[in-house]
Amino acid sequence: ATLLRTLLELTARSVLLAYRRFVGDVDRVLLAGGGARNRVLVGLLAQHLPVAVLENPKVREPLAFALLGYLHRIGEVNVLGRATGGRDLRAGQVVEPYKNSP
């Protein structure tokens, strides 16, 4: 039990440090997947971050792509090069197949 608690603490602190280093202040952190079902981990994260658990994990991918598309549309960079090891910042490309259709 002590080893598991230590690993949970390490995981929570790693997430917190990553947010501080790469993201900064946030209004809310959405959790999904196995970690979101771990009440102890969610509690540890909630001590330092505004955590909300996604009840339906199927919304993760659509939410991520909606956010990336929105950031691209408003001209914001949607890639953290320093988090991925990339050097240049690119917003990617949005394909709008019906935009120029008859």
Automatic annotation (TrEMBL):
Q: Which GO terms describe its biological process?
A: amino sugar metabolic process; peptidoglycan turnover
The record's section on SUPFAM superfamilies has: Actin-like ATPase domain
What Gene3D superfamilies does this protein map onto? 3.30.420.40
- Known InterPro entries for this protein? Anhydro_N_Ac-Mur_kinase, ATPase_NBD
Q: Which UniProt keywords apply?
A: Kinase, Transferase
Q: Name one GO molecular function term.
A: phosphotransferase activity, alcohol group as acceptor
Domain of life, per lineage:
Bacteria
State the protein's name.
Anhydro-N-acetylmuramic acid kinase
Q: Which organism is it from?
A: Thermus tengchongensis
